[in-house]
Amino acid sequence: MSPDIHAIIEQELKLIAPDIDLAAIDPKHDLREECDIDSMDFLSLVTALHRRLGVDVPERDYPKLITLDGATEYLRRKLAEL
Amino acid sequence: MSWDSILKRPEEIARANLRDYDREVTDFSWDQARSLLDGLPDGGLNITYEAVDRHVSHGRGDKIALRWISQENRIRALTYSDLQKLTNKFANVLRSLNFGKGDRVYCLLGRVPDLYIAALGSLKAGAAFCPLFSAFGPEPIKARMSIGEANLLITTERFYRRKLASWRNELGSLRHVVLVDGEDTLPDGTFGLAALMDGASETFNIERTAPEDIALLHFTSGTTGRPKGAVHVHAAVIAHHITGQFALDLHPDDIFWCTADPGWVTGTSYGIISPLTNGTTMIVDQAEFDAERWYRILQDHKVTVWYTAPTAIRMLMKVGSDIVRQFDLSHLRYMASVGEPLNPEAVVWSAKTFGKPFHDNWWQTETGGIMISNYQAMEVRPGSMGKPLPGVEAGIVERHDGQLREITAPSTVGELALRPGWPSMMRAYLHEEERYRKCFADGWYLSGDLAMRDADGYYWFVGRADDMIKSSGHLIGPFEVESALMEHPAVAEVAVIGIPDPVAGEIVKAFVALKAGIASSEELRMELLGHARKRLGPAVAPKEVVFRQNLPKTRSGKIMRRLLKARELGLPEGDISTLESEER
């Protein structure tokens, strides 16, 4: 069974920024603004997702993960390629 | 490990503003620098007049002053003449609200054109302008607005609701809140900027500000106590102007991009004032860091001078050099960096990747402008911050039996100090005479940074002399972070230090001891992390929180941050004779 990527991203986000209200996030909008996280937090998120899912995310692809929907779609595709 | 110096090519030297460093150091005078500006037509000196109106008077009104790139890549270009009219309108709005000389206008905005219009317009009206970083949480905002007795705040509806609405009434000095995106249904007690601007005239008689009148208020953190508001005056523009020419090599035909947010001093001195007084076209990008986007901006907007920060440069290094080759960066002529020391690897990488190095420079909120710098026509020694600007006297000093002694032996570590006298030096910490006085001794301004000077006069950063934390180029005071954590009912004591991070330089880490009877748990750790972020915002809040049963303290009960840090880094613990209560 494939993992629920959306839920995993939310869990990892919550570990970095426990103050965020997941329900209030617009999944099509820049996570940094939606969750009040900075670029360093975003790097931590990508690193955490890499560790959790075993998916390599080259730095060039980081912008593709900048929205919740974008990150979900990107990681789903990458996992399917594994 | 030593690094080879980077030598400059004859064509780089030929076009540089500062071609002969030694001669300029001898010949330079601040009076001469003042004469490069016009002054107000009927006397006085006003930053915005020099930045905007002067160019219109000299027939350069049609030149693009600011090219703004929205998050969605929409472009808005404002000429010097547009900027003159818009800042006149804004100044008229302030007048209509009964604002003028001595009032304090605060701004909490992302990088949108209204921020630039508000900053420059406020200065025209004679008000002091104080920018706040939009990634601050409610507490840093509240502290800075109370200390500076904010009279007016310009912000967005979203920021207002999330960060201000709940406590706004506690701030007696605050007369108005103006929202840049407010339209039909405004929150109670706010105005919409658009409606106010619509009715305002495009002509305005600039307030006749004197050189020593307050213009800007920039907050900086201290190791102890509340943030300090560094007061800067209109005369600072003399330094903004000339240092832009020397250290950033700005020419009127440059397209200049300073990536710093105006919420920090760099984003104001060199992200608003200096590029405009020098008549350049400046680029403003609303979006956050994104390597590919940045290279595209450099290419598409034909950026010639680029001023950014080590954290961004290190992130670009991680993305690698291959991507750079996909862009045409042939217009790029000069690159500079500030915020924290730029590591030699990054300097060498940039020289290899871009065919020219990043030029590191050093200054502080207090100094208002660049003090020590590398230059276009001077050999770069990777890892060095360069040499003092003409007109700036620097030294390495040590305190000895209450006396200050200058260290003249080369490559000896001491505190970096400057002889006050340049125009952009702070004139006070607002309402903090004692803390201001403590910055000076024996005719020196003490920077709090440790550094050394080599035999050829190049300065090298060594570290901070105090417990201040430098994260992503921003100075963070441990006290402000500790205070926010102490507000949590479970916390008995807390110490905050900076720990090394390969990208951010340092990140904020908090050591927390809980009250008796409260057990540590992962849930509580998350709660504290969230608590701190909510109050402080992501730029200031700790990225790591760990529990201790007891924190190391001196006999007088002072927590020894330095010891925690030494242990964290595996360094010698140094003198622990005052240690009374051990870490557990």
TrEMBL record, chain B:
One of its GO terms (biological process) is acetyl-CoA biosynthetic process. GO terms for molecular function: acetate-CoA ligase activity; ATP binding. Its EC number is 6.2.1.1. Residues 480-558 form the AMP-binding enzyme C-terminal domain. Residues 58-430 form the AMP-dependent synthetase/ligase domain. Pfam families: AMP-binding (PF00501), AMP-binding_C (PF13193). GO terms for cellular component: cytosol. This is acetate--CoA ligase. It comes from Microvirga alba.
